[in-house]
User: Fold this.
Amino acid sequence: MAVGGTPTWLGDQNAALALEILLDHGPQSRSGLAKLSGLSKQTAAQLITRLEERGLVGPVGESSASRGPTATVYGARTDLAYGVAVNIDQVNVESTVIDVTGADHPVAREPADPMDGTRTAGRDVAAAVLRACEAAKIDLDKVRQVCVGLPCSVDARSDELSSVEALPGWSRRLVRQQVGAALGCDVVIDNDVNLAAVAERRTGRFAPEAIVAVIWIGHGIGLAVDVAGTVMQGATGGAGEIGHLPVPRGTAGATADDTDLEDLIGSSALERMARELGEPDYTFERVLAGVPLPSRLAEGLAPRIALAVLPVLGVIDPDEVVLSGPVATAGGPRLAELVRGNIRNHTRWDPSIGITRLAAEVVLAGARAVCGRELRRDVLAAVQSTATAEDSSRVIAGRLRTIK
Assistant:
């Protein structure tokens, strides 16, 4: 129910409530909106008129009751503003459009390493946004939000990346400022594993209060910790950078060059172990292609992955550990069982360990969720704004076209 205040403020609050109901429950008649909001039918009708004048809702059909005349049904307009979710990793750049209802749109995918070598943060993200809009047949001037997932940690306070090793041509400093200036719209930039954790939470498989640790195993290894729906960023955005933890002394199979966990578990280590175990044809490219891990390779990797899980158990004590990323997906539930068995047989812990259920585009799914949340906030704020959607989103189209 709306809280008392000035008439203008109260009207804005009730209009935002009405729009949120239409977004959550779909199109409604005036009487349907009154029932869901708890407001009178007269007030509901006034709110529909107010939102229609703002260009935020419109008639989408009619409903017929058993008695009485048909009623016009109104729905929130989903064509006023869109967001674009982007995932940039060592291999590909993926992007997709999202609207305020969260509806699916085509995913655009391009190699991350163009032949011309002209990569920058602004160019990479702008090109991804352009491709997503072209795939979804969406006008550029409708884009209001962009969320980007990157294979490094992101310090939101200083606007710096921990590393650009996987992002040739990028600058570590002021990256959000660079991308925002290039696009002309709001931009969120986050670590890819953090976004994967957002996607895992949205599957609904965990209790609302659960602590979930997502361990990503791919080119490298990373961690994201979700505490009751909030992903821990750390003071400088570096929470979860477990790939830099030193390899414990006496680790079986470790070489003198294996200085940290990424050296022990990353893509190069996987290929080296595959050769040593008589599986020379099993390369990281086959992992990315979704070819299951050979049994001997899964058994060899499990103790090493357990080394990465142990500090998480000792410091975080999560309700659930989720193994994610291409290696985890290729290993499947058996890899999770092997990791858990290794920990149970050699330590005091017996954790619950599972494999992600989001095998494809998990980082992009998290970016979609974050982008959708910000986009929804924008649309609801438009109830009180005096600027039109066209006014507030025209800038990005011009800037993107100059970059193109």
